[in-house]
Amino acid sequence: MSFDPASEIQDYLVFGEYGEVNPSINDSSTYTFLNPGTMAELFEHEIEGCFLYSRHWNPSNKYLATALARMEQTESAQVTASGMSAIACSLLQLCSSGDEIIASRTVYGGTYALLKNLLPRFGIQTRFVNLAELEQVEAAITDRTRLIYTESISNPLLEVADLPALSGLTRAHGLKLMVDNTFSPMVITPALHGADIVVHSLTKFINGTSDCVAGAICADKAFINALSDVNSGPSMLLGPVLDSFRSASLLKNLHSLHIRMQRHSRNALFLAEGLSEAGLPVFYPGLPAHNGYALMQQISNAGYGYGGMLVVDAGTAEQANAVMARMQAAEVGYLAVSLGFYKTLFSAPGHSTSSEIPPDERAQMGLSDGMIRISVGLDEDIERTLTRMKGCFADSGLI
User: Fold this and answer.
1) Contact of 191 with 73, CB cutoff 8 Å
2) Within the chain, which residue ranges are assigned CATH 3.40.640.10?
3) C-alpha of 190 from chain center
4) Which of 346, 318, 87, 370 is CA-nearest to residue 201?
């Protein structure tokens, strides 16, 4: 594809002569008006360039949201205090009591818990299916279904969602397609393949420095306006507002995202190929043996690779723990959850980020206790990293 998302987050701000190269941080919770009529009007609908209260909008959050919308090729966007709040607010805008969601069987553990455990308390049910089986997906659609939910590259199994096929189903049945693109910013642009709502945990690759928690919702203007409606909008009434200082920090980091994603992807591919050649079971969509490899050729943006996440199956939880302890001692990276940091991070998702999913369901989806999820860092000497990693697996008797 010729589309370059990096170009879409540049030149969206217009500054006058002597203007600042970075927008000023707006350190205010409330905003003044020249006349009462404008204030009353703003309670009814958004007025471009006019702000009411920071739980609704503020200039710093608007700058970041505008940049994210440009990156994701959507009309509009909203930033929130976490990725989970972005997901929850979007789902609550789309669904009411009695409605149903069709979701991928392989999603982040926190998302699974929201769908399986919390939303049913409000009368919203979820059917978890294998989204790769389109007949199974279509069979799950009822007159109560409101959306299909998926991750563009799933956490943690790295399954690649067939976004064009799924959007074909949602269009045919009058549903929405909601996509979590946290694992693949720049790599995949879901809106170009039919996604209606794209969510992110900005905490991860987009921020890249593991020093804040934030989220984003990218969609058409009508959806974003509904989310922030002062009378009924979930993001307005639930209040997951992002602090202005964090918005400004995220916006600065966003401008290097294209460079970082290229390096994350390049390093991950190098490690995936090296560990696979050593005989280890490796899951990475950049390997021809991966079941999503051909699909990645179809939907990924040229020049950004296959993402910075890979998974290696060490066999058992005990072996995975031994390898991770050795990798931390060998200075490969850190034993930690989350991802997108400049240093390599690794964890066993079966006992951490996917622990909310019951063991029998993890087994059905192919998530073994021995899997190690690796967020590959920005290492300059990636050959040295591979040598150290292979030594850790060898010392654990796995190669």
Assistant:
1) yes
2) 5-254
3) 11
4) 87
